């Protein structure tokens, strides 16, 4: 890793009415690393991703991407700069066949810059490119699956389709919002190598995750959020030994609390 | 006693499956299967002016063509972009006035004013609707409904563009044949053009906006921009119809903002089958003549009209075209569950 910060998040705050969803969250992600964000339910993980990718307007704070400020930009501009995201509740185009789903991100200015007006340039038109991407992410090209309507796909494939939509933009950063949630153990087992492969391709990953065992397998550093505030940050083993993290996840083990 | 449960099974016809590939050209049967429905539509529309003798009914065909353009625009916006637009009257009015003003001030012939009014009017409509584009569903519909009402009153109150008299003496078409075929060719081109557009890559983006606009934003595309393009296309069709209307009546006035232009395309879409693009056009060529024919019944006209509409909505709510396409492409049979 070069050690250069690709994403620098400084003092992000967000309130929804009277609820402080995020309070002065600050962290930095280095190019090429897998950075985990964990925390109990309602701790502000998804809000943080929404703020970084522009889907929610942050109240204050700053997000620097490759040294340039991207806070307060609309989401499509941020995506075009190479910061893409997946949705926790999958958002495919249900009425379109799976491979046509990817034509839409391939139509974006960022994908067009590399692929040309007709799509993939030398690689073929957009539909060919989208089948290639789907194959890379685990859809069998010769099976019926990529040609089915997205509404007919099971959760495991929809989560992959979310990742595929990011990949179609040839991203530098992918923010994954719980890609393992709702999957069976065998589906998770087949997803982990995919994540590792993305990292090997030089993509920086920020993963919001509840499946800690799998997260710790791929993430080099994790950050813990609780009630919108950052508790701690560091390598997974250290973080899990932190007393405050245990308290946030499991409740206090101090005897005085039980009386 | 056991209850027999049955369900209707639908299977694609073999010929439908075969003609989906490139092998469709390998036999006359398959080529005919593909071409015949389209050919019937095109030839049927082209023959209409020749088959209809009376001048009155020829005019009805022209009006049905204008409604057809509006219905195409409505169906495109509603079923492929997710914007429910009641702006038919708005588009017709803007197009009509633009053509009339161009005609009176610059003295151009319809060959120039109609295309100019279509593009210019579409610009005006898109610009005026731009602030409403982030809205969805019924909210967008309300904004599109307010514009024609407001513009009508503004023209009346400020007494501009001829006020309540309208703009008189707009030049007409050289003869009836040009007048008729002008609108029929436009409808055919608009219909097949839109059908192609929604299956192109940009059409997929439009359908994506309808399906899941947040995912389109995450894909790096501005939804407002693509909605604006879609509104431009639909309002262009409407303005073209309006400009044509001004030229056939040789007059442009505030009655071009009448709500008929907003409502009948929706009724036609319901009757014809939404999301098929062909359906709404056929619906217009069915509804408009019926509405004219019912004039003989005087005030009872609206009653008959409502009964026909209600019968369609209750017994064939999917629409003529959806039903016809299903019968054409699929077998149906009852099977035991």
Features:
heterodimer, A: Rossmann fold, 2 domains, six-stranded mixed β-sheet, 10 strands, globular, B: 337 residues, mainly alpha
Description:
The complex is a heterodimer of chains A (259) and B (337). Chain A is an alpha/beta fold. Chain A folds into 2 domains: 167 residues, Rossmann fold (3-Layer(aba) Sandwich), CATH 3.40.50; 60 residues, no CATH class. In chain A, the strands form 2 sheets. A 6-stranded mixed sheet of chain A has the order 6-7-8-3-9-10, sandwiched between helices. A 4-stranded antiparallel sheet of chain A has the order 2-1-4-5, with helices on one face. The longest helix of chain A is centred in the last third of the chain and has 16 residues. Chain A is globular, with a radius of gyration of 19 Å. The termini of chain A are far apart. The relative contact order of chain A is 0.17. The mean pLDDT of chain A is 88. With 337 residues, chain B is mainly alpha-helical. Chain B has 2 domains: 41 residues, no CATH class; 210 residues, no CATH class. Helix content of chain B is 70%, strand content 5%. Chain B is built from 14 helices and 4 strands. Chain B has a two-stranded antiparallel sheet with strand order 1-4. Chain B has a two-stranded antiparallel sheet with strand order 2-3. In chain B, helix 2 runs antiparallel to helix 7, helix 3 packs antiparallel against helix 12 and helix 4 packs across helix 10. The radius of gyration of chain B is 22 Å and the shape is globular. The mean pLDDT of chain B is 90. Chains A and B meet through helix 2, helix 4 and helix 5 of A and helix 8 and helix 9 of B.
